[in-house]
Amino acid sequence: MRHLLTTLSLIWMMLSPALAQRPFDANAANGLQRLVEPEISPDGRWVVYGLRVADVGKDKYLTDLWLAPSAGAGPRRLSFGGDIAGKPHWQGADAITFLAARGSDEEQKKGPQLWRLPLAGGEAEKLTDIKGGVEDYALAPDGRRAALVVMDEEPDPEQAAGWKRKTPLPIVIERFHFKQDREGYLDGRRKHLRLLDLASRKVVALTSGEFGEAAPAWSPDGRQLAFLSNRAPERDRTEATGLFVMPAEPGAAARALATLTTDDEARPAWSPDGRLIALPTGDDVKWSAYQQWRVGLYDAAGGTSRLLGAGLDRGWQPRLAWTPDGAALVGAVDDDGHGQLARIALADGRVQRLSGAGVAGQASVAADGRIAFLGGDWARPAELQLLEPGSASARALTAHNDDWRRGIALSMLREFSARSADGAEVHGLLALPREGRQPLPTVLLIHGGPNGQDAQELSTRTALRERLAAAGYAVLLVNYRGSSGRGQAYQRAIFGDWGHLEVQDLHAALDWAVRQGIADPARLGVGGWSYGGLLTDYLIATDTRFKAAVSGAGSGNQLAMFGSDQYAVQYEREIGLPWTQRERWLKVSYPFFKADRIKTPTLFLGGEKDFNVPIAGGEQMYQALKALGVPTQLVIYPGQFHGLSLPSYQRDWETRFIAWMDRHLKPQQTSAAK
């Protein structure tokens, strides 16, 4: 069925020349608009969501709130400053709350605050004024209170003594897990829960102490809060998370319901009757980097727990929503290059797919059973969809990207499968330019994670795929072992053995493309970001057939990453400590220690402040190739973390990627252009 849908999409694109007016270039990538965080109103009449756009002049991404009626009359814009930090929620049916950093420069420095916007008209009102800002929040069912997640204030002993410090305090580290991308070096401060009375603006502490809390969720009667907290004795050395419940009162004691593993984006979801709490749940903490989330059900009174849908060998996305009758949960499932909206029944764990090919997610359910979610496919950016009770298919409520899409020529995408060296079946996507004689110069574009998948979507994440195809390249996107969407065994196959089975799978896909006459074996390139950058380093150290490579936010010397990046806990569990497992560390670091095998001209890139895969990983590989006389270049993005946050830098990395491929895979064309 999926292959049929892909074929029909290809025919539709080929028979619609009016849709193909200009190639997918940097301007096209900047024009893509992204919908985020939809939430349907309790009565099902409206859906609020964020719309994120690139402002080229300001070189930043701006987000505003929009409101779409379920009746389909067309959305309207609610905010105009582009300063929404996220998390729009309904306060009854009359107002919307959200986070934003607004006001003077001094006020914005405090961080995002909680705001309320009445739908009847008028300006948004500021509800909090907390130094450091509000990181997350949950509204009580009656809309009169909110549970806030707030970071402890940074102590300054010198200021307390009367000094006026103009320079930052020294950073004092005592933790095992002491650094995190974007958060920086981790000190002793924690994130705690505070209770806000929206009428009086009074804020009181709900929790305090050495443990941090996250993801608050109110019980339906408004009397209790569920939240997540790692309270293990050695909490810095485990991702095990505690699910707790406490009365929504200052000084109340919290009860532990369970210790489990869950996604960082997960939030407890109370059943309508308040008896159960649903939460995406993984297996033993050993598998934290390769978890396939299942639906966990926990008795709010502290009784039994169980996992739903044990026979479904696919993982759920982090957010789950209850149906109004409490008989099922709604979420999205990653499945072999697709993401499908699904319903899972409490009675028997039966799973019903609610959407077809493409990618769907971020579901929100109203009291009348209507489901709002985001859905799209490889030729359509995700838009807001509404699924009515009893309906077989959803209808679109928004069309923000329709005009943009009509003016852009997209690649032609198809699914493929290949057989790896050990017999494993590997699936992927092939993007082809609309014109060009085969065999074509071909780029193996590798996704990061590795716990993720290349899917049939069109988004800012897939802009490089489209730009490469527009430049005349065949693009191979391979869901190698370690990827999600193909089952638990497939996902865990690379545990403690990086750069082995993934490399086999990627080579198998490339061999398939060559045998099919699609890929020109004399013009092969490879590249990726994050784990895609790591795998690029592994591939060029394994095979010299690549004529160009681009390694973004990667590393070849994993031994040097211990203590330099944020993964010490995973390393200790999966590889062992370097002084006890020296050979294993050297094995997974072979791109650096066997750099003399590399002949491929390689471009290395990364963010200056990246703590996920520090820029040192690229610097070391660059220095090695420079010493060996292999053509290479190093590009560092100032002030950037693991993900590039400025439109100009995102377009720059894509442009440099294509230019590097052109230089080495199309040398004659490049010379002629000069």
From TrEMBL:
Residues 468-666 form the Peptidase S9 prolyl oligopeptidase catalytic domain. The keyword NADP does not apply. GO terms for biological process: proteolysis. Keywords: Hydrolase, Protease, Serine protease, Signal. GO terms for molecular function: serine-type endopeptidase activity. Residues 1-20 form the signal peptide. It comes from Pelomonas aquatica. The keyword Transmembrane does not apply. Gene3D superfamilies: alpha/beta hydrolase, TolB, C-terminal domain. This is S9 family peptidase.
